[in-house]
Specification:
The chain is 71% helix and 0% strand. By secondary structure, the protein is mainly α. Helix 2 (17-31) crosses helix 5 (59-82) and helix 9 (129-139) packs across helix 10 (147-167).
Length: 199
């Protein structure tokens, strides 16, 4: 009887791996990725911490699952934005999708910075769509290895640095970040368009 009652509580709480990870991702956006704990997520469902451990192994497991889920969501946004685009338009679409996601979902974005072994990434169902989209964009500029990897690192550094400073209110000049953003992307476009052959 007790087991049946406990099952009813879990069913009402909607506890599945997917729901637990979604709740953790939402909490990350609301309170910060560092504030995601098993206890905090359990409270959101109105259950004890122990109830979550039939769906996740540990806090690290939960955070890794949030990272994978969030990376997939960003890849979806970027992929949709790139449809039918090429050249500078593709770069701007990619950049806008990246910045919009990072600013709208700060906790999810922070989760994606979590270091994880490639094997673990694959184990959790993570894919390489985000990387593939980046490399496809750069090949559109005529780049080949090792330039593609170097240019991908440039884009990631520029995009991540910009949104990190912007999200922390670090741009204090009268000119808004939104005004500077297309100029930054244009500068990256010029850099990619003139990347040294064979570099």
């Amino acid at each position: 009887m007790l087991r049946r009652a406990k099952g009813a509580v879990l069913a009402r709480a909607g506890l599945t791996v997917e729901r637990v990870v979604e709740a953790a991702a939402d909490l990350a956006d609301e309170a910060g990725f560092d504030r995601v704990t098993v206890s905090a997520v359990a409270r959101g469902f109105g259950v004890k911490d122990a109830s979550l451990y039939s769906h996740i192994r540990s806090l690290q497991d939960l955070r890794e699952r949030v990272a994978v889920r969030s990376a997939g969501e960003l890849a979806d946004r970027v992929g949709a934005a790139l449809m039918g685009c090429s050249g500078r338009d593709a770069l701007m679409a990619f950049a806008d999708a990246y910045r919009t996601f990072a600013l709208a979902h700060p906790g999810r974005y922070q989760a994606q910075q979590l270091a994880m072994a490639p094997g673990r990434w694959a184990e959790l169902g993570g894919d390489l769509r985000g990387i593939e989209a980046t490399y496809a964009l750069l090949r559109g500029y005529g780049l080949t290895e090792p330039a593609v990897t170097d240019a991908a690192r440039l884009l990631r550094s520029a995009f991540h640095g910009f949104v990190l400073v912007e999200s922390h209110g670090g741009f204090l000049a009268a000119r808004s970040p939104a005004q500077s953003w297309p100029e930054v992307v244009d500068a990256l476009h010029r850099a990619l368009s003139t990347w040294p052959a064979g570099a």
